[in-house]
Amino acid sequence: MGSVPRTLELFYDVLSPYSWLAFEVLCRYKNIWNVSLQLQPTLIGGIMRDSGNQPPAMLPRKAVYMRSDVRLLSQHLQVPIHFPKDFFSVILKKGSLTAMRFLTAVKMEHPEMLEKVSRELWMRVWSRDEDITEPPSILAAAEKAGMSMEQAQELLKRVSTPQVKNQLKETTEAACKYGAFGLPITVAHLHDETHMLFGSDRMELLAYLLGAWGGAMVPGQLWGKLEKPLLFLCCTSFLLGLALLGIRPDITPVAYFLLSLGGFFLLGCLLACFLEWGSRSVQTESPGASSNARDNEAFEVPTYVEATVTEPQPQPHPQELDQPPSYSSIVIPPGLEEGQPNHPEEPRRARLDRRVGSEGSVTSASPRRPPVSLRLRWSRAASTVPDLQTLWTTPRLEPLTPPPAYEVSCDHSDDDVFYGNNWTPP
């Protein structure tokens, strides 16, 4: 009865919190939308260098917004995200090269474990502030996800092999060919057409492309909205008809008309219920869904094991005032002579332009005029740009759903994700 599933590819990196949000939404709705979800581990550092983009945390205003945005989205989608205490070291310096190579090896050898191992790595770095770069950390994450220690050790040995490196490189290059400039991206293959959607906030558009009545953020179905109004009209018509029969027997035709109208509304309500049930059955039924125990149920949020996140202690650290540039020389336009009165009809001619130069000099635009001595006497301004190192010490986020407990710690010397002149392919 079910239609052939459509294909969605999710390109992601465990360094990206937005990738985690998109990952969870797609895992929850893949059966509802009847789609075949293909997870594609990708290296975000390669995409950044190929596109010339830079992480949002490198810009102060984007960094402040990102923290607030991720906090609200994690509450809304019930994904337990906590920012690492040493954000710049964990995310921008250590990177995720070893972790993404390991996930690539998992996909090649044990694809059925890719979803669980990916979620466990996200839990470590974005929920419990644990390492994901050292081999013991990755082994602990794999074991926590349900993989045997022998399997995990064998996959870890393959991380440095050319097969795994080339596969991660090909996946990253494929994302770049789709037009990626960051992660996550969702690539939908529908009716011989390909659509690339960036970010975790395009689920309404994805539901539209899939023709889904109810999406991750889309309200209930049309037929479900009609049930209550039709039921209300049905009850009202029946009550009015019965009341008229009891009070005024001489207007029996009107009473019968209202009773008939009530019956019509009742049939409409039953038809709406049937159509809603039928549309949900078509969307949720997919080949092999009943035999796959890992498939998420409709609208089901994964159960996370509670994790303890310690609140970082604020470090006293006086913020230095940004010194403004030296005050500039001022250029006087040629038409503005000394002592010449200002004319209302020519206000722009009297405008003075600031140019970077030494303090205390004025230069005339006319070479015949001698320089005039001038001292500018206004107070210097202190920068209000927030200190980047203090952006990540705000109080911790308590998630709506307790996070799962996973443990580990890591670092890799060649995992240079955001820095360096040239990107070395994985």
Automatic annotation (TrEMBL):
Name the UniProt key words of this record, in alphabetical order. Answer: Membrane, Transferase, Transmembrane, Transmembrane helix
Chain intervals for the UniProt region annotation (Disordered): 310-373
Q: What sections of the protein cross the membrane?
A: 205-224, 230-247, 254-277
Biased composition of type Basic and acidic residues is found at: 343-357
Q: Which Gene3D superfamilies match?
A: Glutaredoxin (3.40.30.10)
Which stretches are annotated as coiled coil? none
- GO biological process annotations for this chain's record? glutathione metabolic process
What Pfam families does the database record attribute to this sequence?
DSBA (PF01323)
Reactions that this protein is recorded to catalyse: RX + glutathione = an S-substituted glutathione + a halide anion + H(+)
| EC code | 2.5.1.18
Which GO CC terms are listed, alphabetically? cytoplasm
Recorded hits in SUPFAM superfamilies, A to Z, give: Thioredoxin-like (SSF52833)
One of the record's GO molecular function terms: glutathione transferase activity
Q: What start and end residues bound the annotated signal peptide?
A: none
Domain DSBA-like thioredoxin: residue ranges:
7-210
Q: Which InterPro entries match?
A: DSBA-like_thioredoxin_dom (IPR001853), GSTK (IPR044088), Thioredoxin-like_sf (IPR036249), TMEM139 (IPR038805)
Q: Which family does it belong to?
A: Belongs to the GST superfamily. Kappa family.
Q: What is the official name of this protein in its record?
A: Glutathione S-transferase kappa 1
Q: Report the source organism.
A: Ovis ammon polii
Top-down, what is the taxonomic lineage of the species of origin?
Eukaryota, Metazoa, Chordata, Craniata, Vertebrata
